[in-house]
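Recall the central idea of this unit: under ordinary conditions, the amino acid sequence of a chain determines the structure it adopts. In this exercise we apply that idea directly, starting from the sequence alone.
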Amino acid sequence: QVQLVESGGGLVQAGGSLRLSCVASGRTFRNYAMGWFRQAPGKEREFVAVISWSGVNTYYVDSVKGRFTISRDNGENTVYLQMNSLKPEDTAVYYCASYGGNLSNDYERPIRYDFWGQGTQVTVSS
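Accordingly, the structure predicted from this sequence is:
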């Protein structure tokens, strides 16, 4: 049974920072790419960032480039999302997910991820 547990969400003022963490168990973490998604009320789940199994390759949605950084520690089975210069439009529930298979150019599609965490709320006040 694969488990992904996110933490680090909260309430922050615009311009502030948060670091999300996602701890994985139940599979060989270092073999899989990991992604972060978010979902705001009334909106579809949106891709945020993905990191390859080695950490060498990272990809971001345009709206967070230069503000968010995804990283991983394979020794700790943990993936991180450092979020700086937060904006009210970043408010959402953030989910980490494990990508199924070798990372390819469909990483923005939720259906390509086979395990998901329960989510952590991020609220950015203006």
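The mean pLDDT is 95.
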